[in-house]
Model the fold of this input.
Amino acid sequence: MGVTDQPLEVREGEAIDLKRVRLFLDEALPDLAGEITIRQFPSGFSNLTYQIKVGDKELVLRRPPVGAKIKSAHDMGREFRILTALHPVFPLCPRPLAFSEDTSIIGCPFYIMERIKGIILRKELPEDLSLTPEKARELCINLVSLQADLHGIDVKSAGLEFLGKPQGYVERQVKGWQERYRSARTPDAPDFEGVMTWLNDKMQPDTDHPTLVHNDYKFDNVVLDPQNPTRIIGVLDWEMATYGDPLMDLGNSLAYWIDRTDPEECQLMRQSPTHIPGALTRRDIIDLYGEITGRSTAAFDFYLCFGIFRLAVIAQQIYQRYYKGITKDRRFAMLIGAVQILERTALRLMDNSNL
Done:
């Protein structure tokens, strides 16, 4: 069984200079030998990810998306620094190998890391993978347990305090993402003002136990063992990691989680096989996380609503780049529909909330 997201030819407008990359590698990683090839991983909507193959050695190059100006979300130096500090205490993250801020190489900062080879789940299970309800449940439990483990990492002793200041984290996040939405809104996008007002009114206090926050923890950012697909062997995409409230992290994760019983329009947005028999529901996950960590989840509607809103902002920011013609990736055209669905989802959650 192989990795489900094999690299393809590089997309139009996203090519990188093979000769310049090779010169960089010769200096940064001189032990590499053999012919170099570059291909691109097709999935993902944010930072661009390439397979760099030198001889029989596979590496991964990460760079910001073309036309992106959201520095804090695409800071390659910061992401490389996170992996450098994190890998010794959490070896499931990719091992970083080299970083460059020399824009003459490929036009932007980038870094090189080792590739973790395994299974990455996308919208549907791959044809050669089947999970019984019992195995699907086991995988979901492992996913939640590992997120709880991430939240148990000692940020200070790992040298990760540079990630951010946990004081005022919740309010900063809510206000910051509201500003980002208003800046990225296009004429065809909903205003989200009702959702933003609700979040402001229901604002939760800062946690007294801040933790490492991945900020994009979900099925397609973990790597599964090909020999035992319920076992997680890697956690990817640390670009938005920070130091803050773990319930905000869980809310962000569950914004992506589509239950079997969710409305049809939500099923259209599903990115992972969270609907298969045996998979935990959002409620199951909230309860399990509370049981594992001992944290109260009584006000979780706020955190989930924030996660849904934040996901809409991310989709809108990407859609805006397509709307303005900055990127030609046709996948981005459909994101305006996702933004509209996410507003309706948030409004339903608010209507049914006891907060």
Notes: The radius of gyration is 20 Å. The chain has eleven helices and nine strands. The longest helix spans residues 300-323.
